[in-house]
Every structure is written in structure tokens, then in C-alpha cells.
């Protein structure tokens, strides 16, 4: 009897276990999941940022218990679906408010991160998952306002909503200030909050969950004063408030309650005020510290020296000073970023430093380092990333650098380094920048056989030898800059035929000769081609028509003998074309096709043998020049351009680092047709090119009158019509050109009175000399009658009136020229001003730190 009972009992428990362990999921929930699955397509690109992505929903089959589906977890006792983990699942499509997912009321964890729901808003229905403890909608391209209903989720422990940020001002998600307060106050169980890149635009309330371990709010437009309470959260591990430059941070003087727990403190570009207090010394767990771009100055704050256990330290973009040898105290460093400060001294300490054997990244750019890089360094074997650019280092590049076996990123540009480039031991180089030094000798073979090299930048050195076709082995190159060296030979045919990614090619100012005997392949990404200042002969290769993305083509200062390559007008993005100082000849015939040269902003074909009339139909085509960018009328336009520039930069930084912008020239419109043999009249149509800032038609054989239509060029800064045969009077209307800073009408046959007023009161004699018939100020010949028939009495009066100081007028009327010139300088040279570099490096910092942090999250 007892045995039967026992048997029954055993059978019962086995059956129970069977039932529970298989936990058949409710039919309606399986159906909801299947409906959800069918709303999306599978596309690996949707999870491009994942190390491993997998289309989990593929395994979802009606025939199987949904609790066994990939990414689905059910409650062991009730069988309800309580967890859905679709991170990195390659889902693509719109996520609608009517999604069947919202029927899974019992979800406790929901992870939809690293998919692509482009164009989807975050539905208020997310607020109905009242049991949720984890919600992750990051990196999935949700956009718009985060609904206030999220704050109903009062059991949440983890909330992550963010997108990988494009530009600095690209905030695709937002959270109203009120909702932020609501969220922080109602989610009393919150442990982790990650909202970076979300436009919050708020202060941080001081009463939030005391359980917080992770607060990631970088780039969220926070302002006001950071509540001190945050530092006293005794479980806080990660605090990231970077890129909130209006957020004022004052550290507590007394020991923080988070001192023992805090591991990651990121305060890049926030408003740190007051001293770095003693209380810092208690941060015994600190692993990463970023206080870059935070207005720190003077010697390193004392308390930082106690943090010798730190592994990742960034103090870049401050005004810190002192010898750098002191940093070898930090014996656990993996990455050290000290660029853009005032650190001085020599790198000698590296030679006896055994403390940095774990160091992977060393960034000392733009400081005041002097002397040679020491030769006997052995403690840095693990270096991957070495940047010492823009210092005053001299001597040769020591062998140990070439021997680093894992080196991937090397930037020693803008120093005084000489000697040869030796063979590299590493075969993982991706970025090599040695520009602006005094390096000699040929390119080493090892450099030309790197399987991963994307940037090879060696311009402004004395590198010699042939441009060998072995350079075509570099199949991953994005930018090749060998400008201003002593390279010889011909341009290797294979260079443009084989390379798949090459985006920027600069071989300017070398000695290659011969024809540009290459065939640009149909599929190419060239944006910038600079072959300026060589000895190239022959014609412009017709295959350039395949470079559909070309924005800049500089073939100036060669010996090309061709007619005007009007067919280049087919390149839809061409913005800058220079053919100056060659042997181009013949009349310029242009097609009536209004899309031709539609984006051209700079046309320089000066110093050639072009003849015939000025190209009226070409002028008619230049659509980009027929507009004035209103935002650039004011002197602040450089900062306006930063915004646009960021966008441009980031679109290409996805492939790596950009260093050569074209977009920045948005407002610079230049036509230079000087030193040719153009004849005939200046056509009225030039007055349509209202965006022009520089017009140079000098040294031709133009005749006829100056067209009054030039008065429409309201942003013109420089007008040069000198050394022609132009006759008639200077149109009075030109007085309206209030931006004009440079005027040269000399050596023509102009007559009559020089107009008076505004900018015309600032030009000097040299603007007019060599015109026998011109009279009036500033020439010594008095103007007897101008076109308003001034009486001699009136004239005397005018002459007696005090001259306006020309500097004052310049300040008043002209604003753009200097700025414009400096920007052109950036474009046409390879030396970039500091603000530009800062911009690039800042962006790089942003991207690399972001990437790192994302990696950490895995
Ligand atoms: C959900 O709504 C979208 C548009 O709002 C519609 O296209 C779609 O058919 C709807 N789906 C279901 C299952 O109702
Ligand atoms: C995100 O959306 C933007 C457009 O809104 C799109 O250009 C981009 O490719 C999308 N990103 C991903 C990862 O799908
Ligand atoms: C705060 O959470 C509670 C549940 O704990 C909820 O009833 C209430 O609506 C939430 N308040 C707001 C403003 O979201
Ligand atoms: C936070 O403070 C506000 C007033 O500043 C108060 O209304 C709210 O109830 C507080 N919330 C919590 C969770 O303490
Ligand atoms: C951010 O949000 C605030 C108000 O919520 C708004 O004024 C501002 O324009 C937004 N900024 C951006 C860049 O979207
Ligand atoms: C930075 O903080 C100081 C001192 O609190 C304040 O005067 C200044 O206005 C703040 N700057 C910004 C940009 O918020
Ligand atoms: C810091 O911790 C101590 C002891 O746990 C506690 O009494 C104090 O209130 C905490 N300070 C803050 C500001 O939370
Ligand atoms: C910080 O370092 C100084 C000098 O090395 C030492 O005297 C002091 O005790 C240290 N402070 C802490 C909290 O470790
Ligand atoms: C190396 O690190 C240790 C411990 O941090 C320190 O005492 C020593 O001075 C360091 N060595 C150098 C050369 O800075
Ligand atoms: C390097 O520069 C220092 C001055 O900083 C100078 O004394 C030294 O002679 C230079 N060495 C070489 C090799 O040019
Ligand atoms: C250009 O080439 C033609 C022949 O193709 C030749 O007759 C002419 O002299 C050349 N012009 C110059 C300036 O070299």
C-alpha cells in the first residue's frame, strides 16, 4: 500500500517536473511573438556595430515551444514570457505602436538594442510593461521624444536609451526637462541609467534613486550645478557627464561616499570649477579618469598623484604644465592622453621607465616637448597608439618605434625629425602620419606592404625615390598624402585602378613626370585628387569622369596641354577645380546643360593659354555661385561652419579620420581666369554669380566697359580687372559693394571720375594707376565733373572733408576676407591651423572614447 502511494507520488513529481521544465508557452504569447517577428526583415547591417550579431528570430517556429526560442525566456512556474533579449538580432523595420509585442504584459526584461528601427518613435505603450526591471532601446535608431509614460515603469533597475551620435549637434532623441525630473524621481529602484546623446536640456534634480551604480548622461545638454549628492551615492561605479559644457561640477571637499566604489569618472568638456580637492585621493577604485577640456591649468593637482592605480587617464585640452616625466609614477597605465597642454621637457624618462609595460596608447600631441625621442627604450613593447605630433622633437625616429610589433597608429607629424623611415616590424599599421618633418630616403618596403593601412600621410618631408607601383599593394588606403617631397617617376597606373577605398590622393609638389596615364575605374570613391606642382604632361585623363564623388581636383602647375575639360561638368559634386599654370588652350565651350558644374565654388584656370570670349554659358551654369549663404554674411560665419563641418566630418569618419575638408569652404566662391588671352567684353551675366567673393579677370585682353551688373555681387571681397583694355567709366553703382576690400583696375583704358563713398574711400593709388583718363581721389588729378556733375565748389568741399580712416572702413564693411583666405589656405595646403586640428582631434576623441565605452558594455 505504502509502496503504491510512493509510486504514485514519484510519478506525480516526475510529471510535474516534466510539465514545468518544458513550460509550454501560452499560445497567444507565441502568436504575438510570431507577429512581431514578421514585422521586420533581417539585415546584418542593422547590427553593424555588434561584434557578433545573430538573427535570433529566425529560430522562431510555430512548431516549437516558444520558451525554447532563441532570445525568449519564460517563467518556470507560470510559463509566461518574461524575458526577451533581441540585442544584435539584425532586425530592420518600423516599430509601430500597434506592435504585438505590447501584448506581452509580463515582460520583466526587454532588450531591443543594436537593431535598426529607423523612423520609429518610442511608443507610450512601453509604459504599460508594469513589471519591467530592464529596458534597453539603445543603438536602435529610435527617434523623437521619449514619452513620459516611461516613468510609470517604477520597478526599472536598468534603463538605456541612446543612439550612436552622429555629429555633436545631432540629437535624434529627446526627453523634455519635466520628463527627466519625473523619471528620476519615480524610478526609485534605478541602478543604471544611460541616456547619452539624448537632448534633455535640464538641470539634474537632487532626489533620485539612491541605488544608482551607473549614470551615463554625456552629451545631453544638461546645465546648472551638478548636485553634490551624486558623488555621495555609495554604490556609484560609473559617472559619465562628458560633453555638457554648461554643467557646472564642483567636487565635494570631504571624502565622497562613492570613493570606494567609483571606477569610471568621465568629465570631458564640462565646467569644472574650483580646485581638484584632496578628497580625490580617496578614489581608491578609480580605473578611468577623463577630465579633458575642462579648463584645468597650472601644475597637475596634487591629489591626482595619489591615483597611481589609474589605468586610463585623459587630461587633454587643458592648460596643464610641468615636466611629463612625473607621469611614470602611474604604473598601471594602459592609455594616457595629455595632448594640447603646456607640458614641456624631454622624453628621456622613457628610456629607464619600466612602469609602462602595459601602456597601449600614449598621446602627447601639441605640447612643448623638445630634444630627441630616446633611443634605448624597451619598456613600451605593448604600444598600439603613439601620438607625439606638434611638438619640437628633433633627431631621428629611433628604432624601437619601428620595432613595436603591435603598432597600429603612429603620428609624429609636425616636429623636426630627420633621418630615414626604417622598416616597420608591425603589420597591423592602420594610420601613419609623419607629415611636416625632415625625413629622407625612400619609402620602406614594409610600409608598402601593410595589409590594414588606411592613412599614409607623409607630405612635407624630403622623401625621395620612385613612386613605385608597389604602393598599389595598399588595398585598404583611404588617404595617401605624399605631397611636397622629392618623389619621382610616373604616377603608377594601378594606383587608381586597383584601389577600392582611396578617397584622398595627394601627390602635389613632387617630381613625377609623364602623362597621367591612368584609368580611373568605374567604381571609385575619390573625393580629393591633388597632383599640383609636378611635371605632368599630356591631357586630362578622360576616365576622371568615373570619379562621381570628386569634390576637389587640383592639376595646377603642371605642363598639361589640353583644351578646357568641359566634360568635368558632369561630376555632380565637383566644388573646386584648379587647372592654373598649365598649357591649356583654346576657347572655353560649355554645354547649355544647366546641371553642369552646378556645385562649383572655386574655378581657377589662370596662367594658361585660353582664348576667345569669356565663357558666358559656363558662367550661366554655375548654380552654386548664384546663391548667398545668408548665415555667412556675418563675421561669425566660421563658427557656423563648424556645425556643417561636423556633419561632413562624421559622415566620413565612419571610415576613419578625415583631415581634409571641402565642406568648410561652403561660402568661398572664387573665379580666377587671369593671365590668359580672353578677349571681348565682360558679360553682364557675371552679375548673377552673387555668391562670388573673389573675381580675377586680370592680364587678359578684355575690352569694353565694366558692366554695372557687378553691383549685384554684394559679398565680393576682391575684384581684379587689371591689365586689360577695359574702357569707359567706373560704374557709380559699384559703390554698393560694401564688402570689397581689394580693388585693382590698374593698367586699363578707364576714364572719368572714380566713384566716391564707402569702400571706394579706402582704395589707394595703386588700384587705379595706368589709366590715363581716370581722375579723382585718390589720384592726384582732380575730378572736374563726375556723373552727377558736381560743381567745383562742391568738390572742394568734398576734398576738405576729413578722410575716413581706411582701417575703420575695413572693419565696418569687410569681414570675410581674412577668414576666407585662411580657410582656403587650409584647403590648398596641408598645414592646418590649430582650431582645425582641435576640431578633428576632439571628434576623434569623442568617437574613440565612445567606441571604447560601448565595447566595455559588452
Ligand atoms: C500597424 O500600424 C501601421 C501604421 O500605423 C500599419 O501599417 C500596420 O498595418 C499596422 N499593423 C497591424 C498589425 O495592425
Ligand atoms: C539611422 O537612421 C538614419 C536616418 O534617420 C540612417 O541614415 C542611418 O543609416 C540609420 N542607422 C542605422 C544603424 O540603421
Ligand atoms: C510613478 O509610479 C507609480 C507606480 O509606482 C505610478 O502609479 C505613477 O503613475 C508614476 N508617476 C508618474 C508621474 O509617472
Ligand atoms: C523630489 O523632490 C520634489 C520637490 O523638489 C518632490 O515633489 C518629490 O516628491 C521628490 N521625490 C522624491 C522621490 O523624493
Ligand atoms: C533640445 O531641447 C530643447 C528644449 O527641450 C530645445 O530648446 C533645443 O532646441 C533642443 N536642442 C536640439 C539640438 O535639438
Ligand atoms: C562655469 O561655472 C562658473 C562658476 O560656477 C560660472 O561662473 C560660469 O558661468 C559657468 N560656465 C558655464 C558655461 O556654465
Ligand atoms: C554618506 O554615508 C554615511 C554613512 O553611510 C551617511 O551617514 C551619509 O548620510 C552619507 N552621505 C550622503 C550625502 O549621502
Ligand atoms: C597621497 O599621497 C601622499 C604623498 O604620496 C601621502 O602622504 C598621502 O597619505 C596619500 N593619501 C592617501 C589618501 O592615500
Ligand atoms: C614606478 O611606479 C612605482 C609605483 O607606482 C613608483 O614608486 C616609481 O617611482 C615609478 N617609477 C618611475 C620611474 O617613475
Ligand atoms: C635638438 O634641439 C635641441 C634644442 O631643443 C638642440 O639643443 C639640439 O642640438 C637639437 N638636436 C639636433 C640633432 O638637432
Ligand atoms: C600642345 O600640343 C600640341 C599638339 O598636340 C602642340 O602642337 C602644341 O605646341 C602644344 N602646346 C604647347 C604650349 O606645348
SSE topology sketch:
Layout: H1 2-22, H2 27-38, E1 41-42, E2 72-74, E3 81-85, E4 91-92, E5 109-111, E6 134-136, E7 144-145, E8 158-160, E9 173-174, H3 177-186, E10 192-194, E11 198-199, E12 214-216, E13 224-225, E14 238-240, E15 247-249, E16 264-266, E17 271-272, E18 288-290, E19 297-299, E20 312-314, E21 319-323, E22 335-337, E23 342-345, E24 361-363, E25 368-372, E26 385-387, E27 392-396, H4 399-403, E28 409-411, E29 416-420, E30 431-433, E31 438-441, E32 455-457, E33 462-466, E34 479-481, E35 486-488, H5 493-498, E36 504-506, E37 513-515, E38 528-530, E39 535-538, E40 552-554, E41 559-560, E42 576-578, E43 585-586, E44 602-604, E45 609-613, H6 616-621, H7 637-653, E46 670-672, E47 677-680, E48 694-696, E49 701-704, E50 718-720, E51 725-729, E52 742-744, E53 749-753, E54 773-775, H8 792-800, H9 806-813, H10 817-828, H11 834-857
Parallel strand pairs: 3-5, 5-6, 6-8, 7-9, 8-10, 9-11, 10-12, 12-14, 13-15, 14-16, 15-17, 16-18, 18-20, 19-21, 20-22, 21-23, 22-24, 23-25, 24-26, 25-27, 26-28, 27-29, 28-30, 29-31, 30-32, 31-33, 32-34, 33-35, 34-36, 36-38, 37-39, 38-40, 39-41, 40-42, 42-44, 43-45, 44-46, 45-47, 46-48, 47-49, ...
Antiparallel strand pairs: 1-4, 2-3
Transmembrane segments: 804-828
InterPro entries: Leu-rich_rpt (IPR001611), Leu-rich_rpt_typical-subtyp (IPR003591), LRR_dom_sf (IPR032675), LRR_N_plant-typ (IPR013210), RLP23-like (IPR046956)
Keywords: Cell membrane, Glycoprotein, Leucine-rich repeat, Membrane, Repeat, Signal, Transmembrane, Transmembrane helix
Amino acid at each position: 500500500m505504502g509502496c503504491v502511494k510512493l509510486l504514485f507520488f514519484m510519478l506525480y513529481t516526475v510529471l510535474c517536473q516534466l510539465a514545468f521544465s518544458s513550460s509550454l508557452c501560452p499560445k497567444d504569447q507565441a502568436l504575438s511573438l510570431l507577429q512581431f517577428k514578421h514585422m521586420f526583415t533581417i539585415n546584418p547591417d542593422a547590427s553593424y556595430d555588434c561584434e557578433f550579431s545573430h538573427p535570433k528570430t529566425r529560430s522562431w517556429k510555430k512548431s516549437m515551444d516558444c520558451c525554447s526560442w532563441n532570445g525568449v525566456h519564460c517563467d518556470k512556474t507560470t510559463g509566461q514570457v518574461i524575458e526577451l533579449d533581441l540585442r544584435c538580432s539584425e532586425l530592420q523595420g518600423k516599430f509601430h505602436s500597434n506592435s504585438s509585442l505590447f501584448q506581452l504584459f509580463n515582460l520583466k526584461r526587454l532588450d531591443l538594442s543594436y537593431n535598426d528601427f529607423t523612423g520609429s518613435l518610442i511608443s507610450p505603450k512601453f509604459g504599460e510593461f508594469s513589471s519591467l526591471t530592464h529596458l534597453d532601446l539603445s543603438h536602435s535608431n529610435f527617434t523623437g521624444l521619449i514619452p513620459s509614460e516611461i516613468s510609470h515603469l517604477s520597478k526599472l533597475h536598468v534603463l538605456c536609451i541612446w543612439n550612436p551620435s552622429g555629429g555633436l549637434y545631432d540629437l535624434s532623441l529627446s526627453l523634455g526637462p519635466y520628463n527627466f525630473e519625473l523619471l528620476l524621481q519615480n524610478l526609485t529602484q534605478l541602478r543604471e541609467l544611460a541616456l547619452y546623446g539624448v537632448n534633455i536640456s535640464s538641470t539634474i534634480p537632487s532626489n533620485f534613486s539612491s541605488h544608482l551604480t551607473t549614470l551615463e548622461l554625456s552629451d545631453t545638454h544638461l546645465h546648472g550645478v551638478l548636485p553634490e549628492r551624486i558623488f555621495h551615492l555609495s554604490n556609484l561605479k560609473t559617472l559619465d557627464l562628458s560633453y555638457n559644457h554648461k554643467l557646472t561640477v564642483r567636487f565635494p571637499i570631504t571624502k565622497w561616499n562613492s570613493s570606494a566604489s567609483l571606477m569610471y569618472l568621465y568629465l570631458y568638456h564640462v565646467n569644472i570649477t574650483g580646485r581638484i580637492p584632496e578628497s580625490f585621493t580617496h578614489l581608491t577604485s578609480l580605473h578611468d579618469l577623463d577630465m579633458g577640456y575642462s579648463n584645468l591649468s597650472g601644475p597637475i593637482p596634487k591629489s591626482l598623484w595619489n591615483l597611481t592605480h589609474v589605468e586610463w587617464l585623459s587630461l587633454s585640452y587643458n592648460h596643464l604644465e610641468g615636466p611629463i616625466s612625473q607621469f611614470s609614477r602611474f604604473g598601471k597605465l594602459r592609455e594616457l592622453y595629455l595632448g594640447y597642454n603646456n607640458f614641456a621637457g624631454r622624453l628621456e624618462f622613457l628610456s629607464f621607465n619600466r612602469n609602462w609595460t602595459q601602456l597601449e596608447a600614449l598621446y602627447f600631441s601639441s605640447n612643448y616637448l623638445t630634444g630627441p625621442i630616446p633611443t634605448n627604450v624597451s619598456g613600451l613593447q605593448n604600444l598600439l597608439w603613439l601620438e607625439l605630433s606638434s611638438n619640437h622633437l628633433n633627431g631621428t625616429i629611433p628604432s624601437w618605434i619601428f620595432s613595436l610589433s603591435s603598432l597600429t597608429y603612429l603620428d609624429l607629424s609636425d616636429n623636426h625629425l630627420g633621418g630615414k623611415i626604417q622598416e616597420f616590424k608591425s603589420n597591423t599599421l592602420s594610420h601613419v602620419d609623419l607629415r611636416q618633418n625632415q625625413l629622407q630616403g625612400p619609402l620602406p618596403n614594409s610600409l608598402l606592404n601593410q595589409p590594414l593601412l588606411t592613412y599614409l600621410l607623409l607630405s612635407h618631408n624630403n622623401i625621395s625615390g620612385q613612386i613605385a607601383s608597389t604602393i598599389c599593394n595598399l588595398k585598404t588606403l583611404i588617404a595617401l598624402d605624399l605631397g611636397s617631397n622629392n618623389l619621382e617617376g610616373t604616377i603608377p597606373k594601378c594606383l587608381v585602378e586597383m584601389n577600392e577605398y582611396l578617397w584622398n590622393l595627394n601627390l602635389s609638389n613632387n617630381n613625377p613626370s609623364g602623362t597621367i596615364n591612368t584609368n580611373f575605374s568605374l567604381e571609385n570613391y575619390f573625393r580629393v585628387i591633388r597632383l599640383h606642382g609636378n611635371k605632368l604632361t599630356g591631357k586630362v585623363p578622360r576616365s576622371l569622369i568615373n570619379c562621381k564623388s570628386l569634390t576637389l581636383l587640383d592639376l595646377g602647375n603642371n605642363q598639361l596641354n589640353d583644351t578646357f575639360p568641359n566634360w568635368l561638368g558632369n561630376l555632380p559634386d565637383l566644388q573646386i577645380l584648379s587647372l592654373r599654370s598649365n598649357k591649356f588652350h583654346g576657347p572655353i565651350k560649355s554645354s547649355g546643360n544647366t546641371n553642369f558644374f552646378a556645385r562649383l565654388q572655386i574655378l581657377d584656370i589662370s596662367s594658361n593659354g585660353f582664348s576667345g570670349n569669356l565663357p558666358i554659358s559656363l558662367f550661366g551654369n554655375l548654380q552654386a555661385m548664384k546663391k548667398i549663404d545668408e548665415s555667412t554674411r556675418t563675421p561669425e560665419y566660421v563658427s557656423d561652419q563648424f556645425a556643417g563641418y561636423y556633419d561632413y566630418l562624421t559622415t566620413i569618419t565612419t571610415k576613419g579620420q578625415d583631415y581634409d575638408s571641402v565642406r568648410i569652404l561652403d561660402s568661398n566662391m572664387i573665379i580666377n581666369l587671369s593671365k590668359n588671352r580672353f578677349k571681348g567684353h565682360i558679360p553682364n551675366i557675371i552679375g548673377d554669380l552673387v555668391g562670388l567673393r573673389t573675381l580675377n579677370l586680370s592680364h587678359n585682353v578684355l575690352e569694353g566697359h565694366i558692366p554695372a551688373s557687378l553691383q549685384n555681387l554684394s559679398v565680393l571681397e576682391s575684384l581684379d580687372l587689371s591689365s586689360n583694355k577695359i574702357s569707359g567709366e567706373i560704374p557709380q553703382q559699384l559703390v554698393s559693394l560694401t564688402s570689397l576690400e581689394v580693388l585693382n583696375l590698374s593698367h586699363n583704358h578707364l576714364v572719368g571720375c572714380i566713384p566716391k563713398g564707402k569702400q571706394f574711400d579706402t582704395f589707394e593709388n595703386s588700384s587705379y594707376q595706368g589709366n590715363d583718363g581716370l581722375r579723382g581721389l585718390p589720384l592726384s588729378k582732380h575730378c572736374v565733373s563726375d556723373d552727377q556733375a558736381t560743381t567745383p565748389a562742391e568738390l572742394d568741399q568734398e576734398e576738405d572733408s576729413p578722410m575716413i580712416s581706411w582701417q575703420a572702413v575695413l572693419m565696418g564693411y569687410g569681414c570675410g576676407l581674412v577668414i576666407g583666405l585662411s580657410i582656403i589656405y587650409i584647403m590648398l595646403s596641408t598645414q592646418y591651423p590649430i582650431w582645425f586640428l582641435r576640431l578633428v582631434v576632439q571628434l576623434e576623441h569623442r568617437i574613440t572614447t565612445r567606441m571604447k565605452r560601448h565595447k566595455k558594455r559588452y
